[in-house]
Automatic annotation (TrEMBL):
It comes from the Eukaryota. It comes from Maudiozyma barnettii. This is Decapping nuclease. Its EC number is 3.6.1.-. It catalyses: a 5'-end (N(7)-methyl 5'-triphosphoguanosine)-ribonucleoside-ribonucleotide in mRNA + H2O = a (N(7)-methyl 5'-triphosphoguanosine)-nucleoside + a 5'-end phospho-ribonucleoside in mRNA + H(+); a 5'-end NAD(+)-phospho-ribonucleoside in mRNA + H2O = a 5'-end phospho-ribonucleoside in mRNA + NAD(+) + H(+); a 5'-end triphospho-ribonucleoside in mRNA + H2O = a 5'-end phospho-ribonucleoside in mRNA + diphosphate + H(+). It is found in: Nucleus. It is an enzyme of class 3 (hydrolase). Its cofactor is a divalent metal cation. Residues 19-353 form the RAI1-like domain. Coiled coil: none annotated. Belongs to the DXO/Dom3Z family.
């Protein structure tokens, strides 16, 4: 009989104990969708001097030349890069990595936000696979739009304008002066892999990293140097302030999960001109939100409790013994409940998720079978 279970999103959890994230690996992805494990070729360095804000930097320029690499990728939600990083770690240590749940930070963030967002804003349609004593979660493959809107593009442009491919002393004057002409793409990215936990649940998460704020330490955990870059409309009214606070809650959540300590926010006007930049410490955002909007501020603690509750629920409901048998499950949000349903062998999707590369890559399964 198929396993099914529902979890009410307004159910209150009690877990607030968190394990500090620790970086255990990283990788770069290029415009061809290739994963370069333990390589920092796509790691950027923050550089946006105050004098640049006087130049009326146009965050809309270059849209027609934007390279939408993800539109050509087979599955933008794949976790194969994360699996390659885990495999690299295990090959060098000679043992399986300890962790109950393996996923991207974006996936876990989305599951947490499910308790706060309308399903039209944040639809949840995921697959959970039980394999080798661990749960692997990924979002379902979706069609990537062929084009992006100006608002989304301006975020890419802000990140391109405010980062360098090398630390400042190594960059040429020509590169610095022509940064505003830099073309953008969504294929290149640097990803950090961390070990973290909530309550008794241990997680291995991957997170996209925008840049290093100050300097990089060789052969060390660089989490404390990482920075999240975001770009928001300028805030001039109370309604705009509320929208900004809700947006910062979402950004805080992602950075909190990944262990990213700093958020740099650019503000653009209606004409997509960069007007100003503010820096925020991730651990101070709940305090700022509570002072300005207690309702939003209280969501930070509620988010942690929900995080602990749904991860414990998944581990309780899904069998995850040390077996090489793969059991896939559907995980959706509907009618104010997270709904889990086992995908049986008779289901047309079973072969793709249980035997194919829908979640776990053939390379990873072969490695685990040999371990």
């Amino acid at each position: 009989m198929a396993i099914t279970s529902n979890l009410f999103i307004n159910q209150k959890g009690s877990t607030t104990a968190l394990k500090q994230p620790k970086e255990i690996g990283y990788y770069s992805r290029n415009q061809n969708g290739e994963y370069l494990i333990q390589q920092q070729t796509q790691l950027k360095y923050y550089y946006l001097p105050n004098s640049d804000l006087e130049r009326n930097l146009d965050l809309s320029s270059g849209l027609k030349k934007f390279k939408n690499c993800e539109g050509t990728f087979e599955d933008t939600y794949t976790i194969h890069g994360l699996l390659k990083s885990i495999q690299y770690n295990e090959q060098h240590k000679g043992k399986r990595i300890k962790g109950d749940i393996i996923a991207t930070t974006e996936t876990i963030t989305k599951l947490i936000l499910g308790a706060f967002d309308n399903t039209n804003i944040n639809p949840i349609d995921m697959v959970v696979v039980s394999y080798d004593g661990q749960l692997f979660i990924k979002e379902r493959k979706q069609v990537t739009p062929a084009t992006i809107d100006m608002n989304k593009y301006s975020n890419y442009k802000f990140k391109a304008l405010s980062t360098l491919s090398q630390s400042l002393p190594l960059e040429s004057r020509e590169i610095l002066e022509k940064r505003h002409k830099k073309l953008c793409n969504n294929g290149d990215k640097f990803v950090s892999v961390t070990k973290t936990g909530v309550g008794k649940v241990k997680l291995i998460l991957s997170a996209d990293i925008d840049c290093i704020f100050d300097f990089k330490e060789e052969n060390k955990d660089n989490l404390k140097h990482y920075t999240q870059l975001v770009c928001n409309p300028t805030v001039n009214t109370i309604s705009e302030s509320h929208k900004f606070e809700n947006g910062m809650f979402r950004i805080w959540l992602k950075c909190f999960l990944a262990g990213i300590p700093r958020i740099i926010c650019g503000f653009k006007d209606d004409g997509y001109i960069l007007k100003t930049v503010e820096e925020y410490a991730t651990n101070e955002i709940p305090i700022l939100l509570k002072e300005n909007n207690p309702e939003v501020g209280s969501k930070c603690l509620d988010a942690i409790k929900w995080y602990g509750l749904f991860t414990e629920w998944l581990l309780k409901i899904i069998p995850h013994g040390d077996t090489k048998e793969i059991k896939p499950f559907k995980l959706i949000l509907a009618d104010n409940h997270l709904k889990l349903h086992e995908i049986e062998a008779s289901d047309p999707e079973f072969e793709h998720f249980a035997q194919g590369d829908g979640v776990l890559s053939s390379e990873f399964k072969e490695w685990r079978s040999s371990l």
